[in-house]
Specification:
Rossmann fold; 20% strand; eight-stranded mixed sheet; 10 helices; single chain; alpha/beta; 249 residues
Length: 249
């Protein structure tokens, strides 16, 4: 459920029927101006969780000062990566979600906010969504912040399964950053990626640490500058994310 809002300059609830997803989608918008920030929720979480977990509170000073405007979108992870449909359909449903973001959410943001920049961020699986779409579309996004993310969902880890049950195709490849980043050779795309402001942050005891180290190494190998921070402990909880958004957004 949606809890009471923090004291911000503006809080707005949005809902519309998405042609891409063929269902209603909801969103919360915080603030009136500043750099727009597209915020993805964690695994199977909702558009209001960043507010409920006080992560929006942690950004309230910048929001009230007009430095950032935050757009918290909803998740369909239970219909894609965490559904019981065949794995080839899971990635297709994810691509429909990406279409919703690119063709509906981004134009909505651009209509509301004329700032030239557009940041994309998320925590845990939300970091995957942010990093994946940001790296695939560097002419749309200008800043990427991935917090506690996993960047290859085909890799089995302790307590975390391969979300495609061994299935692999071109769509899966081009939506797993740790798969497609090492293969980027196009100079136009490389130059676009090198203009991005990229931050990756992970906890030292987080099971996704090797995934983050691999992504950082791959970005270094193709000459894409970025910031890579390793925090103490696991740092995979809202209390850490509240600190991270203050530092990196």
């Amino acid at each position: 459920m949606i809890t009471s809002a923090p004291s911000l300059a503006k809080r707005e609830y949005q809902k519309w029927y998405s042609p891409a997803l063929k269902r209603d989608m909801e969103m919360l918008v915080f603030g009136k101006k500043g750099m727009p920030v597209l915020f993805f929720p964690t695994r199977s979480a909702r558009f209001y969780d960043m507010e409920n977990w006080k992560i929006i509170d942690a950004m309230s000073g910048k929001i009230a000062a007009g430095q950032v405007q935050v757009f918290c979108v909803d998740s369909i992870d239970k219909e894609s990566f965490y559904s019981d449909i065949p794995p080839q359909e899971r990635i297709l449903r994810h691509l429909e979600f990406e279409q919703y973001i690119l063709e509906e959410v981004v134009p909505f943001i651009r209509k509301r906010n004329k700032n030239e920049k557009l940041a994309v961020t998320g925590c845990s699986l939300g970091a995957f969504h942010a990093v994946n779409i940001g790296l695939k579309h560097p002419t749309i996004f200008s800043k990427i912040v991935g917090m506690s993310g996993r960047y290859d969902l085909t890799k089995s880890l302790p307590f975390f399964d391969d979300l495609f049950d061994g299935y692999f195709d071109e769509n899966v490849y081009f939506n797993m950053p740790n798969r497609f980043v090492p293969g980027i050779t196009d100079e136009v795309l490389l130059n676009q990626l090198r203009q991005l402001d990229i931050t990756i942050v992970i906890g030292r005891d987080d099971p996704f640490l090797p995934d983050n180290e691999q992504l950082s190494a791959s970005l270094n190998a193709i000459g894409v500058p970025h910031h890579f921070y390793i925090w103490n402990e696991e740092a995979h909880r809202p209390r850490y994310w509240r600190q991270m958004v203050k530092l990196y957004l």
